[in-house]
Amino acid sequence: MFHKAGEIAAVSGLYVLAAQVGLLTGVERDMPLLIWPASGIAAAAVILLGNGGVVGVWLGAFLATLALYNGFLPLRTSVPAAAFVGIFASLQALLVVRLAARWIGPFPKEPRLSHLLRFSTVAAVSAAVGTTAGIATILAAGVPLAAPVAIAWLSAWAGNLLGIVLFTPFLLMLHRWFHSESIEHQLAPMIFGLGIGLALLIFLLLWKQENERIRVLFEGEAVTTGAEFQEMLDRHMHALDS
After folding, report:
1. What is the pTM of this model?
2. Which of 45, 101, 211, 239 sits CB 3.0–4.6 Å from 53 for a disulfide?
3. Contact partners, residue 94, CB within 8 Å, separation at least 6
4. How far apart are the first and last CA of the chain?
């Protein structure tokens, strides 16, 4: 019993920590998130721990969401919203496990690139379901989104997808390594997967930088145009007074 409680506490703690890391990748306007590592940790926890992982994911997502909305929403709203976010985070992880079991089977001893591509498809489908449920919960709670709904959904979906594709296989590989299982045949597809994930992350970071540059230029031009208009208006007012 104490062992199971320790597993749940460890998973929930890792989820909260990963959620804080994910929030640090947030972008002010068009892209609220770049990557959500907690989704990958959640899927790996459910694969390795089963029901204990599900409970740990729910608790971690509940606590992370409650902390995020603390002081912003009343408790009568934030507690149910956090509970539903926890449920949907757990369901997303369960969906990853179920779809992976059906389309891939047990985590292969010698993963190939075809396994990675199938797992990426599993992650994309699961992330779409989890993101849709999460966005719906946020809107129902009355939380204003940092971007239009479509952009917020796409951002959250991409963050969940990257989190699952990058972190879940990596954590499973670490688990095998800690249990003295050979991982030499897993390195090539893992490096390939990390390369894809890092390429997407670099693309999103460059997109963020370009959006910020365009925003600064636009605001600067708007300020200049406003100042010129005010100056012209002052000249006309001065001419009328004369």
Report:
1. 0.71
2. 45
3. 46, 54
4. 89
